[in-house]
């Protein structure tokens, strides 16, 4: 894909955002992501906003439908209709989440060259696993997604910890303020253990 095509897709995404057509915005940014080139901060934010709004609408719908389904006691047919509709929204939500997770794993995280981008993508990954966990039912809710939600957030914390602690002058006070203990090693370089 040429630079002109990429710029055109980014422009389409901006137009879609202004007209609140987030599905179109997400598709444009998905195409930009699939070029395999690292995204700029602006492109990264456009991608995030697009999918956040696409998923946000489905999450909101799912909560409303779930509430209606729980309150519907009058007839079995009404409950069945509510359940079927909820399942349809869940399916859409799962497909979108898997799409984003695929983009993150295949294109975005491997190409992230700076820590800020890596943290952004790992947080995004954790968010989409959380969205999957919110609509999971039964055994899937209890096991499949529970740990996956926390792993990216832990990694984000570690990256942020090492990026922002001024360890060159006096590492001990800086590290103690971050709930981290220091274990001195023989080389006099502190070994950090986090309580994350």
From TrEMBL:
Domain 14-3-3: 6-177
InterPro entries named in the record: 14-3-3, 14-3-3_CS, 14-3-3_dom_sf, 14-3-3_domain
Pfam families cross-referenced by the UniProt entry: 14-3-3 (PF00244)
PROSITE patterns: 1433_1
Top-level division of the source organism's lineage: Eukaryota
Similarity comment: family membership: Belongs to the 14-3-3 family.
Record-given protein name: 14-3-3 protein zeta
Organism, as annotated: Bactrocera latifrons (Malaysian fruit fly)
Organism ancestry: Eukaryota, Metazoa, Ecdysozoa, Arthropoda, Hexapoda
């Amino acid at each position: 894909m040429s630079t002109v095509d990429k710029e055109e897709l980014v422009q389409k995404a901006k137009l879609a955002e202004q007209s609140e057509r987030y599905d179109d915005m997400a598709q444009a940014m998905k195409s930009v992501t699939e070029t395999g080139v690292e995204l700029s901060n602006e492109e990264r934010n456009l991608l995030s906003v697009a999918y956040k709004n696409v998923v946000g609408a489905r999450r909101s719908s799912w909560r409303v439908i779930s509430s209606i389904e729980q309150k519907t006691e009058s007839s079995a047919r009404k409950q069945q209709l509510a359940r079927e509709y909820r399942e349809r929204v869940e399916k859409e939500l799962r497909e979108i989440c898997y799409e984003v997770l695929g983009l993150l794993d295949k294109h975005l995280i491997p190409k992230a060259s700076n820590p800020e981008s890596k943290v952004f993508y790992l947080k995004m990954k954790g968010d989409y696993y959380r969205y999957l966990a919110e609509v999971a039912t039964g055994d899937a809710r209890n096991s499949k997604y529970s740990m996956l939600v926390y792993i990216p957030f832990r990694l984000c914390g570690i990256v942020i910890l090492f990026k922002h602690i001024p360890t060159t002058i006096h590492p001990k006070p800086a590290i103690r303020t971050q709930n981290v203990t220091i274990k001195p090693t023989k080389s006099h370089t502190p070994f950090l253990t986090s309580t994350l």
